[in-house]
Amino acid sequence: MTLDTSLQYAGTLDRNDSLSRFRSEFPLAASHIYLDGNSLGLMSVRAEKSLIAIMESWRQLGIDGWSAGPYPWFDLSERLGSMMAPLVGADPDEVIITGSTTVNLHQLMATFYHPEGTRTKILADSLTFPSDIYAIKSQLRIHGQDPDEDLIQVPSKDGFTLDEDRIIQAMTDDVALVILPSVLYVSGQLLDMAKLTQEAHRRQIAIGFDLAHSAGIMPHQLAAWGVDFAFWCTYKYLNGGPGSVGALYVSRRHFSKTPGLAGWFSSDKHTQFDMAHTLVPAPNAGAFQIGTPHLLSLAPLLGSLEMFLDADMDQIRDKSLRLTRYLMDLVDHRLKHYGFRIVNPDTDSRRGGHVALAHPEAVRICKALKARHVIPDYRPPQVIRLAPIPFYTTYQDVWNAVDQLLQIMEHHEYEHYPNQREVIA
To answer: Where along the chain is pyridoxal 5'-phosphate bound (predicted)?
Structure first.
């Protein structure tokens, strides 16, 4: 089938896009081609309004905002967890909005990692986000284990992707816990969570996933797959704002577990204000909260998640795959002579929400793109990540981004910039 590379064809795709109605809710999308939503999603009008609503409750009600107003604060984490649950294929009481990605990982490891006998090791991979590895090593030390001996990191053959069979082979009798990403943050490879969960459980090993690069861009079926736990941030595809509060999932099979890191908000809501010194944990995922929720960082999620409930995760995933496929096709057709290499999986079922282009001049090319109001993301080793977001990226945006990239390469514009990444890549 011949690829139509015309801008007119991109316009036709946009006119047939059922999600195009959401673009006007993201002001910055009108002036920039923003392809960095896998790092920080854009602010929506709805997110801004819900933030203002919580601030108004504080201004007008003071402490009574905990129990009054349009969004009472006391159970707001639970309310947002219920809104989030359909996005990850969970029951409402299995998801809670709390903490941050790394804090939640610490909580879950403190709860699920219990080295006993020969089962002392934690299995991870060599390509996961560094913060997860820092946390894993920390928990190993806390439990009296040696990170050099008790952390297994499955290597990559090509430096970009993982072989799931090698991961399964590493699920040996000395592994106590498996922690893996759903989508690799550099290459965008989507792992088969259902298969990995099944294989871990066949070996009596608990398994959890970091969904930071999949939550909000594709459907999940955490409960149906049997995943023990998961954790994720909300500021990428979920558009919750910089530093927005994280999320975690715990299968109801584990509701009887005592939270490894207990705090006041681990309490059952009915007894929390009894002020007893014996914790009565919440009978659901709320037990895995620790401290008071950060209300002003929760607030934008009310508006953002409302948008996800207005849309459909299958539609979001379908458009995401179409956008990334279109982007890859245009790169192959228009940039094939300029040294770009697509390192994300080509198969739709194995690809997350972004395209990863490897190029020796990736740092300088990213700077040249930003000067043209095309916002990419750089990640070592020499990778340009481009994430077209279904809510606010058009097919014409994708066409124009590739056209801008072509002009940068044709005129060697990247040579005007130093070959050194910024503090924030």
So the answer is: 101-102, 129-132, 210, 213, 235, 264, 292
